[in-house]
Amino acid sequence: MMHEAILPEGWKQPQGYANGLLARPGRTLYMAGQIGWTAQQEFMSEELVPQFRQALENILAILKEAGGKPEHLCRITAFCIDRDAYLAARRELGLIWRELMGRHYPCMSMIFVADLLDHPARIELEATAVIPD
Question: What total of structural domains would you count in the chain?
Answer without folding.
Answer: 1
